[in-house]
Every structure is written in structure tokens, then in C-alpha cells.
Amino acid sequence: MNPALENIKTRGFLQQCTNIDELSRLMDKEPVTFYVGIDPTGSSVHIGHMVPIFAYRHLRDAGHKGIALMGCGTARIGDPSGRTEGRQMLSYEQLDQNAASIRSQLDSFLSFDNKTAMTANNADWLANLNYIDFLREIGSHFSVNRMLSFEAYKMRMETGLSFIEFNYQLLQSYDFLELYRRYGCRLQIGGDDQWGNIVAGTDLIRRIERIEAYGLTFPLVTTSDGHKMGKTLKGALFLDPAMVSPYEFFQYWRNIPDPDVRRFLLMFTFLSIKECEELTAAGKNPNEGKERLAWEVTALIHGKAEADNAMAGARAAFGGGSGAGDRTAMPSIELPRAKFEAGYNVVDLFCDAGLVPSKSEGRRLAQQGGAFVSDSEGNLEAVNDPSSLVVPDRLDKNNELLLRAGKKRYCVVRVG
């Protein structure tokens, strides 16, 4: 197998490929241009979106040429894949703003040079399509029966599939055709939920251009305990530091289940395979691998300085027992002194600090012994009574106190 394909297979990226033997031979002969689609329906990508982007970088580093395709055209319709209901329609202006934001995020990770790594926008060829000409040239090559056999459409048929969404596969296939015509693109990569759309694109190129194109998909990653990858208490693990702080981002990786350390080191870092194996060898303390994973991913996304700060904050929180060390990298919130003078209910306090999603969760946390509040000396004490009140006597000399939910989630409360 071609070394680039062997590398991504060993690292756990490879799920399906349309013709891996032929693709391997092509990649042995010449650099292959490939693309991955980017959905600009939000202003930031989250870590689940990054699986194809990590693979993109591996392929680019092996000498192949990558295109990140901003889907400002297809997002005007919405991809039905993996969804039980239609997507909310966004304005064209909002989609353009989201695409610019995401491009900036990916540029810091992929370093677009317009030679080995570049971006394109499918609105350039989709926005002004002549519908009749499109149906004649493209629609005539699609079988409705075959389209309905793909999982994305079968799932939506149960809840209602709009005609506008039904067109999505035609448009994505046309993207692949356009990228072949413009840039010689022969390979599309993406999550496994895109398999049907990718196969349709390879088939369209074969029918119209009489040349073989290829599709390669990656697994939809879940943790070993069955949770969706990158799912946190507050929602998705976004790359935007305004949405998820570097400390929270670091802590997500630091707290993953032990069985996932090796797999995530291979997928979400660029450490050598040998080093990933050494970090997770039998007899190794899994916390060593977790901390290295957390630092590496945080450094890739937020920079080495933020990764160092996050590590220092985590070590201060977990290393000393009291949590009274360097708190600068920890999540924090400012709350008014008047609430403490009146007696701040501990459940309300944990809710306001974002450590629990609801008051019922806050009450359960306290009753189960998982709610900790620091005293004036910085020592953490369990508060088991949900009706307990937190008063100014608990504030330290800096008018701060530290909250801990369970064993791993902290928040610094600064009182003004």
C-alpha cells in the first residue's frame, strides 16, 4: 500500500475507500489532488470536524495536494446526511462570514499556500447555475432509486425529506466534477456519513469525463464509553477560544477514558507512531499519555503558549490538593458581591459558574458529595446540603473562591 495511505490506515483514519488498490497505485506514480468539504453553517469548527483535517495534513505532508472546499453554495440548501430534520436556513451573508472565520481557523493549522494546500468556494460555480442546463448535464446521470438506497436519504424519508434537500447529492457530486475540471482533483475525503455523496461524485466523473475518481472516508469517532467525540457539558468542543477556553480544551483531552489514549494520540497528534506506542505501552501510567495528548492537541489548535498555560493551570488544580496554586489558566467568572452578602445558594452558584447544566443536576451533585467550595485559605471542602449558602467569609484575600464539580471540573469565582 502507498505509504501515505498506510500511515492514515495505521493511525485509524481509514473507514471505506472506493478502490484502494487503484488509488494506491496512482499515489505511487504522482501527487494526487484531493479535497474535503467544509460546512459553513457555524462560525467555528469543532473537534469532530477536524478528523478529515488531520488526515488532510498527513496527506499533504506526504506530498499530495489538498483543497478545503468552503460549502457556501451547498449550505444554502443544507446537507441531510446524518440528520433527522432539515437544517435552519442561514442568510448568504452569514454563510460568507462563517466561511471566512473557518478559513482563518484552518489556515493556522494547514498553512494555505495555494500550492500544496488551498481553499475554494463552491458558491463560485453553484450560485448562478442555470437549472435547466444543470438538469440536462448532471441530473440525467442520477437514478432516483439508487439515491434513495443511501442511508442519508432512507433515514430522512421516515421524517420527511424536502425536495430542496434531495438535490444536495447532485450538487456535491457536481462539486467533485468541477474540482476535477479546475484542479485535476481525483480524490474526495470526508466522514463516513458522506459515503453516499462521495460515491455519487466518483460515479458522475466516471460517466462524464471517462476517468476514475476515488472516495475515502473516515470513522465517526466516539469515545470508548460510547459518547460522541468532543461532546462536553457545555456542548461541542469548538476551536474558537471565545466558545471553549484553551484550559477547557486541554482538560477535555486530559480527562478522556484510559482506553482512548492510544487511539487519540494516533489520530489527533503528529507524534510518530512509535512514540504513540511508547507512551501507551503496557505498564505505563495512562496519565502521562493523557497529559502529552492534551498538550499536543492544545498546542496544535491554540499555540504552544496557551498549551503551557493550560498545563500549568491543570497541574496547579490537580497536583496540590487544595487547588490554591496558579489559577490564571482556569475557567473563571465574575459575580457580584451582593449575592454572597445575601447568601449565595450553592446550587445557584454552581449553575451560574457553568459547572452544572441545571439546578436539578446541581442538587444531585451536592447530595452525591461532588460539590466543593474553597474556604478563605483556599482549601476545598465538600458542600453536601443543596440548601447551603455561600457567604463572603469564604472569599480569600483576593476576593476569590474556587469551585470544583466532581474530580475534574474547576471554576475560579472572582467577586466584585
What does this structure look like?
With 416 residues, the chain is of the alpha/beta class. The chain folds into three domains: 216 residues, HUPs (Rossmann fold, 3-Layer(aba) Sandwich), CATH 3.40.50.620; 89 residues, Tyrosyl-Transfer RNA Synthetase; 84 residues, Structural Genomics Hypothetical 15.5 Kd Protein In mrcA-pckA Intergenic Region, Chain A (Roll). It has 19 helices and 15 strands. It has a six-stranded mixed sheet with strand order 1-6-5-2-3-4, with helices on both faces. Strands 9-15-14-11-12 form a five-stranded mixed sheet. α3 links the parallel β2 and β3. α10 packs across α11 and α12 packs across α16. About 2% of the residues have low confidence.
CATH domain class of the largest domain: Alpha Beta
Report how far the terminal alpha carbons are from each other. Answer: 62 Å
Percent of residues in beta strands? 5-15%
Rounded radius of gyration (Å): 25 Å
Count up the domains: 3
Which bin fits the share of residues in helices? 40-55%
CATH topology of the largest domain, by name, is Rossmann fold
Dominant shape: elongated
Mean pLDDT: 88
Strand order of the largest sheet: 1-6-5-2-3-4
